[in-house]
C-alpha cells in the first residue's frame, strides 16, 4: 500500500502514488474518513490556496496516466504543430513516472505535478529527469502555451536561457481528457523559499553551489568561509546577481516576468545557477520605431513593466536578508508600509520596530544591510521605490556597491555618498558611547552632510520637511543622570519633532516638539526603570526663508587652539585625499553655504503627567526643570532653531543660534503599530 499525493483545489483531480511524504512545517494534519490524513496548506507556496491530499491506494502509479498515453497518440492539429514546432512533442509512453513528487515543485491549484525520467532511447533527453506539469483548466493551458511561445522568442540566445530560466522541453497533448502536460526541466526538489525555511539553509546552499575561490570571484570576493555574516552576504550577492542577470536577459528581449517570487526560483546543482520560474505569464513590451505614433505609450508600458519586476526582486532580496519577513504577518506589515506611499528610504527606521535585531547567527539581516555604509538599505530602497520611474534597473543594480565584493572598485555616485555619510552618522549615534572621539566623528560627518545638502532651496523644504522626525543626536551638551543627584530622577524617552504644513498666509509650518519621559521615584532607578510616564509639548509657528550660513575665518595669529583639532580642518584634510577628490572637487572650505532660514513666533508649552503625579504642582515644576536640563535647549525653546542645513527623504539637520546641530531621522512609529 502506498500514499498518493497531488497539488489540487478539488477532489476530482488525480494523484500520483508516493511511498513516503515529507511534510513542511507549515502543514496541518487532520483525520478524515477513518483516519486518512488530509494536509491543508494556506499560503505555504504562494498567494493561492492549495491543498495536498494523501490517501491509501494499491494501484500502480502509472495506471492513472495510461489513458493519457492513448489520448496523446491521437492528439492532432496542424496549426498547433506549426506554432509549437520549436519544441518536442512527447507521448506518455516516453516517460517513466516516479513514485514521488517533490513538494517544492507544486505551485498552483489548477496544476498537478509529476516527476519522470525520459525512457525513449531515440529522444535527445534519454535518461534525463524532467517534470510533467498537468494543466487542467483553460487558464493553466494558456500559461503552458505562453511558456512555449516565449521559448521560441528566446531561442537565438539559448545558452543564457538554459542558464537562468527553467527549461521548457515540450508538451504532451491529450484531446480526450481535455488536459495537457507541459514538460520542463528538473532543477532540484525545492524552491528558494524551501531552501530558506530550512534551519541549516546556509551550509546546505553553500554545499549545493559548491562555493570555491573561483565561484566567489564572480561577486568580487576572493575568500570562502569566515563568520556567518560574511558567508551569508557572499551567498546573497551570488544569488542576487544571478537573479538580476536572468531578469535583465528577459527585459533585453522585450519580456517582463511578472511573477517573480521565492516560490518560482530554483537553484540547479548542475550548473549552480538560479532559475526563474516558467514564463507562463511573461508579458510583452514590444519595441517600436521612432516614427511610430504610439511610441510614448510603448515607452511608458516598458518602464512600468520593468519597474514591476524590479519591485518583485526587491521583495525577494528583503526576504533573503531579513528572515523575519518570511513570516506572513510581518511581511503583510512590510507591504502595507509601502502601499501607503511611504518612502522606502525610511525602511530601516520602520523595520526596527517590527523585526528582531537579535544578533544571532540566524538573524544577521540588519548587520548585512548596515555594512559598507548602509549600501544594502540603499539598494533595497531603490528596488522598492514608490514611483516606478525611481526604481533601479538590472544593470545599475549589478553595479551597486552592495552587490560588488571588496575586490571590485565601484565609483560611488553623489547620491550614494550622501547616503553613506547619513548612514554612518546614524550608526554612530545608535551604537557608540559618546566619548570625545565619537563626538568629533559624528560632528565631522554632519558637517560633510551639510556641504553636500541636495535641497538648499526653500521650495524643496516645503515638500520634504512635513512629517514626524525623531531626534538621534545633538552636538550640544549631553547631561544625564549618572553623575548628578537631582531632586527627582527623570528618564528621557523618544524626542519627536512634528512638522505640519499650513495654508495660512505668511506662515509655512507649525513645529511641535514632543518629549516623552518617565519619572522614577525610587532609589533603585539604575536597575528599575519603572515609573510614571509623562509628556512635554512645545509648539510654535515658523516662516521659511532663503538664507546662508556664514563661516567666520579667524586669523591664525589670533586663533586660540583647543585640545581637539578644528572640525573644518579635518573635513578639508578628508576631502583633499585621492578617494574624495574625484567626486567632491573642493579645494578650500566655503565661506558660506545656502540654508533654509526658519523664523519663529511665540511658543506654547504644555505638559501631561500620569497618575499619581497629576495633582502635585511642586513635583511638576521639578520634572520640567529636570527635563529642560537633559534635553537640548532648542527643543524646549523652539525659537532657538534658526536654520535647516540638510534635508533628504530620511534625515534632517537643524542648527540653533549657538551653532549646535540636531540630527533627526524621519519617524514612522504610527505606521508600525
From TrEMBL:
Keyword entries, A-Z: Plastid, Transit peptide
UniProt-recorded Gene Ontology molecular function terms: ATP binding; protein kinase activity
All residue ranges annotated as the Protein kinase domain in the record: 99-403
Database matches in Pfam families: PAP_fibrillin (PF04755)
Organism: Sesamum alatum
Keyword Nucleotide-binding tagged: no
InterPro entries given in the database record: Kinase-like_dom_sf, PAP/fibrillin_dom, Prot_kinase_dom
Sequence intervals crossing the membrane: none
Subcellular location: Plastid
Protein name, UniProt field: Plastid-lipid-associated protein 14, chloroplastic
Chief site of localization: plastid
A Gene Ontology term for the protein's cellular component: plastid
Amino acid at each position: 500500500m502506498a500514499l498518493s499525493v497531488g497539488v489540487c483545489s478539488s477532489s476530482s483531480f488525480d494523484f500520483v502514488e508516493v511511498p513516503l511524504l515529507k511534510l513542511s512545517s507549515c502543514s496541518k494534519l487532520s483525520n478524515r474518513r477513518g483516519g486518512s490524513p488530509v494536509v491543508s496548506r494556506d499560503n505555504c507556496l504562494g498567494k493561492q490556496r492549495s491543498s495536498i491530499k494523501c490517501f491509501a491506494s494499491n494501484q500502480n502509479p502509472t495506471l492513472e496516466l495510461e489513458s493519457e498515453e492513448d489520448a496523446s497518440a491521437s492528439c492532432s492539429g496542424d496549426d498547433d504543430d506549426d506554432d509549437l514546432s520549436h519544441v518536442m512533442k512527447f507521448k506518455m509512453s516516453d516517460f517513466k513516472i516516479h513514485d514521488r513528487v517533490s513538494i517544492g515543485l507544486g505551485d498552483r491549484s489548477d496544476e498537478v505535478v509529476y516527476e519522470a525520467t525520459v525512457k525513449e532511447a531515440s529522444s535527445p533527453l534519454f535518461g534525463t529527469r524532467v517534470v510533467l506539469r498537468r494543466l487542467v483548466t483553460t487558464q493553466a493551458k494558456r500559461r503552458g502555451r505562453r511558456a512555449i511561445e516565449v521559448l521560441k522568442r528566446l531561442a537565438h540566445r539559448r545558452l543564457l536561457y538554459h542558464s537562468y530560466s527553467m527549461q521548457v522541453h515540450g508538451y504532451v497533448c491529450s484531446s480526450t481528457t481535455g488536459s495537457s502536460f507541459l514538460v520542463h526541466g528538473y532543477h532540484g526538489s525545492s524552491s528558494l523559499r524551501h531552501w530558506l525555511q530550512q534551519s541549516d539553509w546556509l551550509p546546505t546552499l553553500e554545499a549545493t553551489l559548491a562555493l570555491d575561490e573561483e565561484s566567489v570571484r564572480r561577486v568580487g570576493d576572493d575568500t570562502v568561509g569566515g563568520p556567518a555574516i560574511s558567508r551569508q552576504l557572499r551567498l546573497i550577492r551570488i544569488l542576487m546577481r544571478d537573479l538580476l542577470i536572468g531578469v535583465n536577459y528577459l527585459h533585453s528581449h522585450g519580456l517582463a516576468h511578472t511573477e517573480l517570487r521565492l516560490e518560482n526560483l530554483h537553484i540547479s546543482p548542475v550548473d549552480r545557477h538560479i532559475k526563474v520560474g516558467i514564463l507562463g505569464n511573461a508579458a510583452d513590451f514590444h519595441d517600436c520605431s521612432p516614427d511610430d505614433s504610439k511610441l510614448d505609450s510603448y515607452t511608458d508600458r516598458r518602464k512600468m513593466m520593468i519597474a514591476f519586476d524590479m519591485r518583485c526582486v526587491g521583495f525577494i532580496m528583503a526576504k533573503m536578508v531579513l528572515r523575519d519577513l518570511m513570516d506572513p504577518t510581518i511581511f503583510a506589515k512590510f507591504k502595507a508600509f509601502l502601499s501607503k506611499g511611504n518612502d522606502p528610504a525610511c525602511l530601516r527606521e520602520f523595520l526596527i520596530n517590527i523585526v528582531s535585531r537579535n544578533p544571532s547567527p540566524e538573524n544577521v539581516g540588519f548587520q548585512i544591510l548596515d555594512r559598507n555604509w548602509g549600501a544594502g538599505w540603499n539598494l533595497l530602497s531603490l528596488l522598492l521605490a514608490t514611483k516606478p520611474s525611481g526604481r533601479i534597473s538590472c544593470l545599475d543594480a549589478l553595479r551597486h556597491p552592495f552587490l560588488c565584493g571588496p575586490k571590485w572598485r565601484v565609483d560611488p555616485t553623489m547620491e550614494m555618498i550622501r547616503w553613506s555619510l547619513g548612514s554612518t552618522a546614524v550608526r554612530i549615534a545608535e551604537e557608540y558611547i559618546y566619548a570625545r572621539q565619537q563626538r568629533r566623528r559624528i560632528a565631522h560627518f554632519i558637517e560633510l552632510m551639510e556641504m553636500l545638502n541636495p535641497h538648499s532651496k526653500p521650495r524643496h523644504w516645503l515638500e520634504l520637511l512635513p512629517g514626524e522626525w525623531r531626534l538621534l543626536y545633538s552636538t550640544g551638551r549631553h547631561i544625564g543622570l549618572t553623575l548628578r543627584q537631582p531632586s527627582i530622577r527623570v528618564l528621557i524617552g523618544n524626542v519627536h519633532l512634528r512638522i505640519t504644513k499650513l495654508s495660512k498666509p505668511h506662515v509655512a509650518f507649525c513645529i511641535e516638539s514632543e518629549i516623552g519621559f518617565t519619572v522614577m521615584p525610587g532609589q533603585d532607578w539604575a536597575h528599575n526603570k519603572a515609573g510614571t510616564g509623562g509628556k512635554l509639548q512645545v509648539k510654535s509657528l515658523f516662516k521659511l526663508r532663503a538664507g546662508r550660513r556664514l563661516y567666520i575665518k579667524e586669523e591664525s595669529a589670533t586663533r586660540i587652539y583647543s585640545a581637539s583639532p578644528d572640525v573644518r580642518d579635518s573635513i578639508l584634510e578628508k576631502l583633499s585625499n585621492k578617494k574624495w577628490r574625484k567626486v567632491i572637487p573642493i579645494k578650500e572650505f566655503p565661506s558660506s553655504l545656502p540654508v533654509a532660514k526658519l523664523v519663529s513666533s511665540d511658543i506654547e508649552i504644555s505638559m501631561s503627567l500620569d497618575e499619581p503625579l497629576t495633582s502635585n504642582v511642586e513635583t511638576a515644576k521639578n520634572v520640567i526643570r529636570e527635563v529642560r536640563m537633559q534635553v537640548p535647549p532648542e527643543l524646549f525653546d523652539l525659537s532657538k532653531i534658526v536654520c535647516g542645513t540638510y534635508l533628504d527623504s530620511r534625515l534632517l539637520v537643524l542648527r540653533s543660534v549657538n551653532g549646535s546641530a540636531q540630527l533627526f531621522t524621519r519617524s514612522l512609529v504610527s505606521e508600525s503599530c
